[in-house]
Amino acid sequence: MEYQAERMKLYSTPSKRLDGYIGTNLHPSKEFQDNVCDAVNRICSFLKEKCDLYKDARVIKTIKAGSIGKGTTLDTSSDVDLVIFLSCFSSFQDQVEKREEVINDIEKNLKRCIQTIAFKVDIFPLKKGTRSLQLHFQAKKKTEVVEVDILPAYDALGQITFTYIPPLKVYIELIEANGLPGEFNTSFTELQRNFVKRCPTKLKDLLRLVKHWYKEIKKQSSTDSKFPPKFALELLTIYAWEEANGGEQFKTEEGFCTVMKLITQYQDLCLYWTKYYPLDNSKVGLHVKRKLMESRPVIIDPADPTANVAKAKTGAWDLLAQKAFDCLRQPCCMKDEQPIKPWNVQPTRHIKLTVKQDTGAPAFLSCNPFAPIKCIKEQFGKEGYICELYLEETGQANTALQDDKRLADYGIFFPTTLRLHYSTSQTLRCTVS
Questions:
Q1: Domain at 23-155: CATH code
Q2: What is the pLDDT of residues 256-275, one digit of tens each?
Q3: Most buried in the list 146, 200, 201, 400, measured by CB within 10 Å?
């Protein structure tokens, strides 16, 4: 009953009062933040000063990730990913081979020194092949539990600044390591953190609201229900804000309804960013383009091009979409008994097309990948002539773009160059450069 009352509190909140709801219910108190910081600082000190690590490895640096590092913590609820970069890892492959032994060493040291940490510490049993050591910290006089995942990682980036852009060779190394998708994302934790941390305060509040909604519907659902990763919804929220040019000031209720609507359009989602890695014809760019051609939804991690963070078990997105559709009919998404109009945001960005012709300068278009090919051709129509477009860039050499198809049907969600030919016959030749 307590959960149901809290859930209805969000759904019954009038849309114009969502900002107040966030401020009253979701912002972490200073006491809670101090408690979390104390727990994290104690474990960092332990790792650096009292932990005998694998072959005398030293801690190069520790990075607080998760909601604490990103600045999107919810009150009385925190997840801290504490990434420790160690000198014993000299490559991604080295991390794979030594990680489990390192985690075992940390666990043994913790059990040996647990009384010196001045916190109640619960250590969760290790599973074979695990990538982290999960702990629960609780101050002696506090009720809140701080969840900490300790993740050993290879220091692929070195010391970075807030504006740091990795050299291309780092990502080539990552792809050539041939790990599972996202297996080495701990090495790019700082980039992930900074990508969210850069967001303005009001956007972080919208992120809090979306995360709160996500946590509440998970509580409501049966224990065996599977949902897409929370990080996918964070990135979806940032994408919606970027596409709407939200700036520092926007209406929270419109942003929230936009995210809910995009969730219901999950089958068309195909998102990526080029802040940290390019989408040109490099090995990295070609890798990302192949990822974008996977079955949707696709949301590529801005910091790790190997990871589609929207990957989920069968039916997970469908279930989440049902919850989002239900949310859109609640008072929090209504105004004067009418649905709030969301921002004009499509489930994927418009893409840049360069259309080269036999004569004259190329044409440049911004195109919705879900628009019919016929609509693109109509912009180049000549009386008495037939025009046709062909693809080569995606490995579909000399494949004609059919009028009733869309660029999305060919897996095209990225800047593409086409060559246009005119003919008076039905046999046309047209290639992509």
A1: 3.30.460.10
A2: 999 999 999 999 999 999 99
A3: 146
